[in-house]
Batch of 2 targets.
Target 1
Amino acid sequence: MQRYRIITLLFLLLMGLASCSPGHLGSNEIAFVRNGHLWTIDPDGANAFEIVAENTPVVGYAWSPTHQVLVYRSLDPDFAKTAAAKSLRSNASTGMFEDLPSTLNTIGIDGGSPIPIMFSSSNILYSNPIWNSTGTRLLFRQEPTSPPHNPATALWWIAQNDQPGGIAARLLSSSYSIPSLAYTSSMVIENSEKGVFTTTLAGTDMQFLTHQPLTGHPLPATLERILWQPAHSQPAILYAISTTSPSADSTHPFSVQLTLRAANGRLTTLATCTCTQFAWSPDGNHVLYSTGSTYTILHLTDMTSFTLSAENGSVPYWSPDSQFLLLDGTHTLTLVRIANKQQQILLSDTAPSKKADNSILPSTSALLQPVSNSPWAADSRHFLFLTHVRLLWQGHSLSSGKGLYTATITASGQLQGTPVVVDTGNDSQAGWTYEDANTSFLY
């Protein structure tokens, strides 16, 4: 009888869990924001699940590297009632929002009760959190709502992903640059008026790599970066130093040297350019940098490079295997095949591409952030895209019109079939997998 009762209890428990489960496997889900709520969905459009449906809008989220947990920002309840909150505008290219009064929360892929890792206040702004490579810690920026804002005075926090209300949060040292998280250790690299330094995630054991400020730092916001090399046991760091005279006219192109500092301290100038953005590839063997509508991919193994033209301001997304690059613009979506240096416009609209002024960079005090999620699936053979107003796929109208689609490529980057519609709602910030901040441009 006792054995029967135990079996019955286990059966009822399993049935209860099954009835509550949204049916997700936790390995291949797509996420997106719709009307202030966070959703997940299968790549074939099945099992749409409203994972976060709060009274205050969700304004951003990020997949963890394990694809089992998401972190999200929801507006502070008092701020959400204001006219400023009701008139918020997201970035036209990424759909992301600036630093805002918000609560930072984590939640499992199957939903349930979120964990508020930092409580909100109408007087405090938070950025989108950035995951470390193991998915256990989160890095985010905090500032007061009252300007002026300055990256050098912003507070940088590291918090544990499963502890509420800042219980396991640690304050890092002041940094001009967004701190870069290491891949093989619990270390962070930062940059200040005293030089470049490393520290632990707990904010201890500070070690200086340079004992004077880098030339020209703090730089314009998109260039103010110290990036740890991905996927290498002895990682180098990548940064820019100014070659433009401080007295130069601010409307002139801003020239920098992209500099590689090896683990042994050896310095190499990779390029001298009027760059506007730069980042690593996921395998750490390529550097991508841009000047307006020109994108250059530099191979570190032989120091060769190739340059391509795409829509100005396109958002670059590396495939996880570093073999392909998507350039997601307002009017076009372009696929770049790294091996044969080819590019192909996949998605377009009928509007002419606008050429913006390449010489104007965001000010030093601009509080930018990396893209939070990748449109690529983990296998690097599938990717998603939001149409926006781009409804022509290789010159032909998409079958279901505006919406969220997935596409498939072969190992050589050739398209397979036609895009598959996943959802036709008013979706934004669609993401398939974790995006490493060191491989992303800033927006």
Note: Residues 1-25 have pLDDT under 50 and may be disordered.
Target 2
Amino acid sequence: MSSPSKATLLAAVLLALPAVAPAAEQSFASTYRPVASGPVLIRNATVLTGSGARLDGADVLMRDGRIAGVGKGLAAGDATVVDGTGKWVTPGIIDVHSHLGVYPSPGVTAHEDGNEMTAPVTAQVWAEHSVWPQDPGFATALAGGVTSLMVLPGSANLIGGRGTVLKNVAALTVQDMKFPGAPHSLKMACGENPKRVYGSQGQSPMTRMGNLAGYRAAFIEAQAYRRAWDKYEAGPAGKGRRKAKDADQPPTRDLRLDTLAGVLRGEITVHIHCYRADEMALMLDLAKEFEFKIAAFHHGSEAYKIADRLAEAGVCAALWADWWGFKMEAYDGIQENIALVDRPDKGCAIVHSDSAEGIQRLNQEAAKVMVRGERIGLELPPERAIRWLTTNAARAIGIADQTGELAEGKMADVVVWSGNPFSVYAKAERVYLDGAWLYDINDRSKQPVSDFMLGREVAP
């Protein structure tokens, strides 16, 4: 009996493998590996867990890259002990809206890689393919206590492409920064930006009604694409049970529709740049029409007007503390916005940056919200406000099972502050990622400098 040919063997192997389904996550997989570190016990600090608790005179134990314990009188064992007396300890800050790496410093034309302004719908592009790990902004964000961030495309397009979640570590490649297991996100934009960008070129959309028509047309295409792939995957060919010569051919891959089909399947989270309350309501109806879930509205100057509806829908609002009035759709913002969206039961308010400078002081941005909220009679203690930077942010980008809270088993992403983090005088003194001590305000050897900055004078 003759041996099978190489071609026959290859065909058999290929049929045994699963088809490359839309929104497949195998490509450009994370190669992130935590920095090796020994156990650490931070003792006798004021601890904000991120889950709504404040523990005075408490300890935090980190072991094997995870939180091993939070409470009073923890045994040190073989752990390095850090005196937390007079210090505050929080989970690492998470910024859900950043353009670090895709609009890096220095801000020159050659570095403008965040907006693929070639069509209103560019769902095929991925922000991670533009991220420059040498952006000095990553190190300055770390000094502000930021341990994870979601990097998004810009807002020129109706659908701008995929965002990526990164661990804030010094690395040579974006894959070495990618948060393991984090879902991709989809960046969408409503309102002025897309209609201005394309309307000024005599293209569609040039109105808000053109915006909505563009979203609907894209998702109608995606529905058909998804059905074609689902039919193929459910059939004998998709299950690898037919001979190669009889196998049905899979649908033609389309990178743009891969992403949108991933949204329809619930594999990719949806984040929408949207300011006005009426437009957010329209986007909620769009999501209902095509049966996908919106994770968060970003910027949302008028989110306070529909705070009840956002809470009921389980949609987060990632907002600025006080940016408003810089264009018409941002005109009706108020400084109490975040405080009003943060409903105690279902509300999900987040403080975000959208800025290479603002990301360095998100704790102070949150403090502004506390002050404005308290002036209208709301009770916003530190143990509640810290959620805007940690647990709520982790929830919105799909990593709450791993980080955002000081709880046993979660990633040991931890910040030691010189005092109350919501004081203008507070500094992030130490920052740990997965239990590794990666930043120290008092130790230049633990203040990362990108390759781009090596050999350049840095102000002390």
Note: Residues 92-403 form a domain with the TIM Barrel fold (CATH 3.20.20.140).
